[in-house]
Amino acid sequence: MSEAAPADAPAPAGIGELLRNRGFTGLMTYRLLAMLSYQIVAVTVGWHVYELTRDAFALGLIGLAEVLPYFCFALFAGYAVDHLPRRKLGMAACIGLLATTLTLAGVASGVLPAGTSTFGTLTIYAAIAVNGVVRAFLAPVYMSLFARVLKREQFVRGAGVSSVVMQSGLVLGPAAGGLLVAWGGKSAAYLVAAAFAAAAAIAVITIRVTEPPLPAERAPIFKSIGEGLNFVFRTQVVLGAQALDMFSVLFGGAVALLPAFISEILHYGPEALGLLRAAPAVGAVLMGVYLARRPLQRHAGRVLLIAVAGFGLSIIGFALSRELWVSALMLMLSGMCDGVSVVLRSTILQLATPDHLRGRVSSINGIFIGSSNELGAFESGVAARLLGLVPSVIFGGCMTLAVVGATAKLAPKLRRLDLRDLH
């Protein structure tokens, strides 16, 4: 382990103990900076593409352009994290994010010969596809280092603090992205995102942590990946938690359609996009602070199912809203429910996974969880084309409620889970 106390030391007093751990604060800095870069790009690209196309379906294609290469590389990224220096891989991923963001800035400013033509839109999609490859490495690096800077008894509280950091990035990133686009233009927004990516690369390589020794012999890559897949699919609480989130976000996500909602339903500009993109994260931050101070232990599975059901109901409420403040409130409530889900899901993953499998299991988790946002963006674009904006989001919220019911029936170990069972 890194700078953690010996295993037989008494449990830490609380959040203050975590914040005095330089390895943990360094890891949180890396996560926040990478999140800010990624979220500013996400907001700016959505507005950029919608300006060029005026088509909700084109917004859905942004998610597809990212998730396909993510799927192709995620398992190999997990293998790499379990067999190569983790901080160096994290730095390389951040440098890749920097390169793609500078490419997007070149398209927006006209430095690259793409302009506002169809070729310009294709160039944007190509940059986002490279981002998908880069993002395949970010989460496994983070999850693997998380277990090196904390003791097991700190995981639940550490997951709460981590959720606050992540959701703070989801608040600040979209808000900054919307304001930068509105006041400075798309090029300025991309350049600020590039600066955050460069800072994240520095933060991850300087984290105070002792990494595990590299294996003397590397197992065959596909056999090693299969070991991670076997663990996930035979561990019901891990598989159930991942599948619950994947399908609920796949059907219940409305964020990809926000530019169209703001323009056609609420009749606001890009500053409202930043507000609404940040609203779910505001709710999640509030919930993360609460859970960091009062970690959940009992009835965790039941609470997880209730939270995801609340997420679906909030999305239906957002679809029915015609006022900006009501829409923001519904998205904030969805974020509070999702905040519970994020903390519980990450804690289950950390407590249930052996250290030598963390990279591979995290990459599989990324396929379930991380890709659900992008697949959900594509599903939202298709549903909006077929059903219309409002009916498509109502349909998605109803499907989320159906997913909760199916998970409660098919994963009884998850439904009955107490986190104390995993310590």
TrEMBL record:
Q: Which residue ranges run through the membrane?
A: 30-50, 56-77, 89-112, 124-147, 159-183, 189-209, 243-262, 274-291, 303-321, 382-406
Instruction: Recite the UniProt keywords alphabetically.
Output: Cell membrane, Membrane, Transmembrane, Transmembrane helix, Transport
Q: Where in the cell is it found?
A: Cell membrane
Pfam families with a match to the protein in the record: MFS_1
Query: Gene3D superfamilies, per this entry?
Result: MFS general substrate transporter like domains (1.20.1250.20)
Instruction: Write the protein's name.
Output: MFS transporter
Membrane topology is:
Multi-pass membrane protein
Enumerate the CDD domains for this protein: MFS_MefA_like (cd06173)
Q: Does the keyword DNA damage belong to this entry?
A: no
PANTHER family assigned:
ENTEROBACTIN EXPORTER ENTS, INTEGRAL MEMBRANE EFFLUX PROTEIN-RELATED
> Domain of life of the organism in this record?
Bacteria
